[in-house]
Batch of 4 targets.
Target 1
Amino acid sequence: MDGKLQIKQKINSAISSGDLRELEKVASDISETQTRKEKRSLYEQMNAALVEAAFDEGQPELLSQLVEPTREEIFDLANRAAAIYSEKKDEAWFSAIFTLVDKLDRKSHQSDILARISRDLVQAGGVDSGDIHYIEKGGEAFDKISIRKYRSAILSEIIPLFIRYGQKHRNVEIMQYALQMLPEIGDISRSRNSTPTWPGRLPGPASKPVRSTS
């Protein structure tokens, strides 16, 4: 029991210090615990403390120290990080999304969550707010989707969002781009060599013409 209490104290001390090396040392100490059940319990306690500090104190870098989080936990945390990024435009939270996704072993799980986040950034951040920045960030998430079927499936949801954005914000270029991407959805279902792409930089809202004063 004393050993468990000591580990708990080490966890709290490491989190308070914000020293990632100290947190890594605590995780290493836990890994030497004899029984799997006890080890799992200590990891869960450490993860819970890390998550609480990360979100309550605005320290997304702490999420990199999570040990053996479940798929469901990662999905939840990545969505929470994306929501904070959409609200604050803090790049540390955007980076935390990919740090969390990298903890998933299966590429299909990684692609699944990245596809959802890409769509949500385009919709909530881009279409609803009119900020092209979020559409571009959605593109960054999209580009990291490694499995083609997820890229194709989410693209079929994102293209209508591009059209909505173009209509709402009078952006003809983005609507033209969306229409050009439509064949890529069909192509990808037939050819493994075809991969839908996102433009490096999307056109912003159309500017109003300047009237001549002469």
Target 2
Amino acid sequence: MSQQLLCLTSISALSGNRGKEKELSHPEGDAPPQNDKDREDSRTCALSRRAMPKEAMIRFVAGPDGALVPDIRARLPGRGVWVEATREAVSQAARRKIFSRGLKTGLSVSPSLADDVEALLLRDMLQALALANKAGAVVTGFGKVEDLLARRDGKISTAALLHASEAAQDGRRKLAQALNRGRQTLQDGHIPPPDTIPVIDWIAGEDLDLALGRIHVIHAALVAGTGSDGFMTRWRRLDRYRMADTSTPSTDVSATMASRTDGPSGEAHDDRAITGQE
């Protein structure tokens, strides 16, 4: 009996040591996944060695010509290296030759890699906007956008407001006022309004025209729902990539948030909080 107990104690101690070794085998800051789903949904950033959701990262692979290829949809075959989806992280990874070490091969890395990734993310976002338009989730034209923003029944909500980069200040201001009127009406009817609505005002008019299949698009709005979810996800990804410091909100013109700033009359006093201009 004593020999059996000694054997069981030894096995238990050995198992405990193996568990500790497994814990220590993970890089610092990269906690072991809790289950198979966590393992599938996260990757380790080759630059920071931190585990992150795949949606917050960009995958890179070696092309057949030996050039580094950004795989923004994570679909290309072969070994991949994951880096946090920010311009700063991509630039640092290129400077520190992280890609060559991770892919274990000599690579030709474009000096404009960070710009190339941003261009791909922009194209991906515009393609998602085209799909949202086909799904009937995009409203264009000043009058129609104004009507959507000022709706009073709360049955249809706005996911985002879009202005072409060349849109006039007067049109932006009037739509901001319509948005605030709609919010006030919802509150009067005891319907909770959305806290914030993104105002995206940096897309060139010609890009909006191409994505929406229309001519001279200046103002547009996305209807909240499954039809616009793909665009919103890609816009957030691009906006985060452009941010210099991801721990603080963006302060450039890449995106602003429409929020309520009421005075005694219920009108918004500071249009800059809504349009992000001046």
Target 3
Amino acid sequence: METITTALGTAVTSLGTNIQSAIGANLPAILSVAAIFIVITATWKLVKRFTAGN
């Protein structure tokens, strides 16, 4: 039973490390995608405001 618990703990720890390294490696890409979405949304709102005003 103790062996199973230890194996599970190791698996969870390594999984967490893998997720952290994956996020760390992809963080610039994630941030750039988020920035693009923010810019598109802001531009869209500006365009709608100007077209609605005319």
Target 4
Amino acid sequence: MLEMLDRDRVSDTKINLANKMIESLEELVENLGDGVSELRDELGGAREEMADLAHQHRRLETSLFLAGMIDKAEAAVRIYTGVEKRVLDGDLKVFKEAAGSPEKVNLLVEVYNCALPPDAPLTEDQQRFRNALVSVRDELNKQNKADAVSEVEAQPLALPHVRQALEKFAEDCYATPFAIQADCAAFQEEMEQSLSDEDLIALRDGNVEVLSSILGVQLEEVEQLRLALTYYQQKDVEIPNHALRSVVDRLVDVEEPETLTHRDGGLIH
């Protein structure tokens, strides 16, 4: 009798478990059905957009042919394709060819924004190209005292260790941002991969301004100085004494502007 009761209990348990599994599968099928339906609608919308684009392309091509400009249009497309390839390859020589012309740099910005939208992952060469493009843009706008060159579209870089360092310093300006060597190495790698070769050389020579837009937003001077000093302190980074002293002195001046400091010339207010 006891054996029969045990078998019944086991059977009831198995049946209940099977029913629950069936209910879960039914719910999953129902959810998948909704998902498939939504995906079908999205694909339908995408097909309509592609058909409209193809129609507009045919209209443009016919219009150019009727106007006798089809050869010029094809030549322009070849030129654009060539520039686009150089942008995607991260070819920095295009900046020399632009020769400081706002119009030519504007065209580079437009090609870059189309070829590499903000959410596109960047190779190391493409990141260097973007950094150089931003620097050239900022310099031209500074010279012209106006926004002669358009914005370079980009999603802010993740750079989690750079952000972590700034967050630590915001809490305590004397904090040590990283406790283990692996994090220090990751921070150094993020800094170096985010800068062009020219900007990296400038940073190692004491020019912290190259870090002003490393996170896609304008950093304050004290943040630039703290990041630079943290980078200088990494074991594989060689920094000349004049650069290290310059950054340390500037950081002291910014963090403690009203403190009397001892310099070579004596007490300075």
